[in-house]
Amino acid sequence: MDQIAIISDIHGNMPALEAVLKDIEERGVKTIFCLGDLIGKGPDSDAVVDLIQHKCEQVIQGNWDDFITRPCESETLQWHQRLLGEQRLSYLAALPFSIEFMMSGKLVRLFHASPRSLYERTQPWDELNQRLSLFEGSEHCPSQSAAEIAGYGDIHNAYLQHLNGKTLFNVGSVGNPLDITQASYVILQGKLNSSEQDTIQLQFVRVPYDIERSISDAVEAEMPDLEAYSKELRTGIYRGIS
């Protein structure tokens, strides 16, 4: 059986990424896909981009990877842009939108937020029709066929749901989890590129990492928005919630 580790939303948090990559290696998984948001909120976006390019077979674009490449007036985003430099910004701007493949007779589609947009956010408690729409294809995807398994990142909240005979999952976040304060990723196992029905498995993995090291790295880098970043890492509570 083939195995794919699916990671997302690293957000410049190198200690979390290193912990997840170590766990993936120890499990003997050779193939890694990344669903975007490599950069920003944390202090190590440059190093994360370099390591992801080295370790991941396929990488798609997240909303942060998109808007960080555009001119802006935000001092925080300008700080991250300077850290990344032109070559990495060009890499992020050129990332594809989604990944599709057959596994054990099922069409799997992976994207950052929705099959239509990097900015269309869907939570596990949203209306059924909204969640079902995540199985649809779009002009942004390799095909417009309906997926039987759909996986995404963006919300930093790992979950699995079976809807109308199909499987929807969110991989959670490596570097900025907002459910529990451990890095999250998924292992998908089955027969890759096979149209024949066969066994398929999906496993969620949570990995502890050195949160205080991540915060110390941000302090040393004199990163903006440090207080909000530290609170999110320590509590798993989104900065937008008072």
CATH superfamily: Metallo-dependent phosphatases
Number of DSSP E strands: 10
Highest-level CATH class: Alpha Beta
The whole-angstrom Rg is 17 Å
Main sheet: which strands, in order across?
Answer: 3-2-1-9-10
First-to-last CA distance: 46 Å
Number of domains: 1
Strand content bin: 15-25%
Poorly predicted regions are none
Q: Which structural class do the helices and strands define? A: alpha/beta
H/E element sequence: EHEHEHHEEHEEEEEHH
Global geometry: globular
Number of helices: 7
Mean pLDDT over all positions: 96
Q: How helical, in percent, are the residues?
A: 25-40%
Main beta sheet strand tally, sense and closure: 5 strands, mixed
CATH names the topology as Purple Acid Phosphatase, chain A, domain 2
CATH architecture: 4-Layer Sandwich
Label this structure with key terms.
242 residues; alpha/beta; Purple Acid Phosphatase, chain A, domain 2; five-stranded mixed sheet; 10 strands; 22% strand
How are the elements arranged and paired?
Blueprint: E1 2-7, H1 14-26, E2 31-34, H2 45-55, E3 58-59, H3 63-67, H4 75-93, E4 98-103, E5 106-111, H5 128-132, E6 149-152, E7 159-163, E8 166-170, E9 183-190, E10 201-207, H6 211-220, H7 226-235
Parallel strand pairs: 1-2, 2-3, 5-6, 6-8
Antiparallel strand pairs: 1-9, 4-5, 7-8, 9-10
Helix pairs in contact: 2-4, 6-7
Organism: Paenibacillus sambharensis
Protein name: Metallophosphoesterase
Family: Belongs to the metallophosphoesterase superfamily. YfcE family.
Question: Can you put this structure into words, describing what you see?
Answer:
There is one protein chain. With 242 residues, the protein is α/β, with parallel strands linked by helices. The chain has one domain (2-235): 4-Layer Sandwich (Purple Acid Phosphatase, chain A, domain 2), CATH 3.60.21.10. 30% of the residues lie in helices and 22% in strands. The protein has seven helices and ten strands. It has helices at 14-26, 45-55, 63-67, 75-93, 128-132, 211-220, 226-235; strands spanning 2-7, 31-34, 58-59, 98-103, 106-111, 149-152, 159-163, 166-170, 183-190, 201-207. The chain has a five-stranded mixed beta sheet with strand order 3-2-1-9-10. It has a five-stranded mixed beta sheet with strand order 4-5-6-8-7. β2, α2 (45-55) and β3 (58-59) form a beta-alpha-beta unit. α6 packs antiparallel against α7. The protein is globular and about 55 Å long. The N and C termini lie far apart (46 Å). The mean pLDDT is 96.
